[in-house]
UniProtKB/TrEMBL annotation:
One of its GO terms (cellular component) is periplasmic space. Belongs to the peptidase S1C family. It is found in: Periplasm. This is Probable periplasmic serine endoprotease DegP-like. It comes from Prosthecodimorpha staleyi. The keyword Signal applies. Its EC number is 3.4.21.107. Signal peptide: none annotated. PROSITE patterns: PDZ.
Amino acid sequence: MLNGTQRLGVLKRAFAATAAVGLVFAPLVLAPLVVSTGPVAAASGKGPDSVADLAEGLLDAVVNISTSQTASAERATPPVPTPKAPEGSPFQEFFDEFFNKQQKNREREPRKVQSLGSGFVIDAEGIIVTNNHVIDGADEITANFPDGTKLKAELIGKDQKTDIAVLRVKPTKPLKAVKFGNSDKARVGDWVMAIGNPFGLGGTVTVGIVSARNRDINSGPYDNFIQTDAAINRGNSGGPLFNMDGEVIGINTAIISPSGGSIGIGFSIPSNGAAAVVEQLRTYRETRRGWLGVRIQGVTEDIAESLGLKDVKGALVAGVTEKGPAEAAGIQAGDVILKFDGRTVPGVRELPRMVADSAISKEVDVVVLRKGKEETLKVRLGRLEEGEKIEREKAAAGKGTTAPTVQPVISRALGLGLADLDAANRDRFKLNKDKVTKGVVVTEVTPDSPAAEKRIVAGDVILEVGQEEVKSADDVVKRIETLKKDGRKRALFLLSNPDGEMRFVTVQVD
């Protein structure tokens, strides 16, 4: 048996060996091994006795994804510090000239940048799923299999919004494939297993539990991640998260870590959303999502109170896209969407996913709350990608500004300076002439006023007060006075910014 000094020497030699290949370890703390001879306390609950059989049947379906892309030396590697000759050396001039020339040559010389990730086979004929960020910008993609086989991969399609990519390889024999499971059945506390390629080490198995569901980490419009404490590190991206039945219920894609290593907070794209995207990419090489054509915001407690809603739910329509599906169906700014295609809309996060998962050209029932009453409207959905193209073209066409002109304030209310919408105010606040066509301009905001608390700023345009349209500064003042007489404590404002993007805010009026 090794004594303490001998054990320390072995650990030092092991650390030196691993450091030579570029691995970084946390500081080692040696502590005496404590052996207990007493009975082991029975746990109130336990995990699986072993996942060896499960892992053995799945490892061959998980691949390492390696990519390379050509980049300039400036992008690929940081500048190399130039050595200096001794101070006063007669060779200093020649020394500097030589190394400066070497550095310039290095900057002009293109380099190959390598990256590593993970993926998994879903079709024995050679279809592989991974993350978009693993292969983004790659000139070459290679799938490395556990048996040592390396196959060049073709990119079939990718989706930036969900960070999913689908690849194809041409194997000489059928591959081991896995299938998607039902991520909606995964409960917090269920055991899960991740397999991937952390730090380029190759097939690595880690086990943990589902820590949380429906996580929004602000990475995209459809965030709905499964959170897990199964160890996920750099290189695990694109790998599968399995349930204990060996089904893929998530695609490992992100971690929260101050150090870059696992601290037990990892995120996976749920399979129920991913499977639909994968199928579209396989079939069309692109996504084809449903499009409603509305801009929405959350329903807060203040907004719910001002609209007469008993519960804080639904999605508030802040604007409707011109010539979009919603406008054609009669949906209006100020409507609260309560149900979509027979399903309740819990909040603003859920509606975009509901719409995106729906088929293009499908006619759906949309239940809205309008001025205290529910109405059901029929909407024929468009295609999101086409709607985004229209919005980009309109934004590009609307660019351009003119010189500002000062306009005197006409009215004041709730700490707001108000003025009618005219040519002078359009120029002063650089209002989009195509998108901001009516309303009352906010010319100034008093600090610490109710309006300032709601982040109303000069240049905003008031379109409605209490769900009633306002056309002049006097209209705003009169409408607020009416609400006060009716005993209302807050007024619901529909505002537009200079670019025409609308939002609702509630402002205290009592």
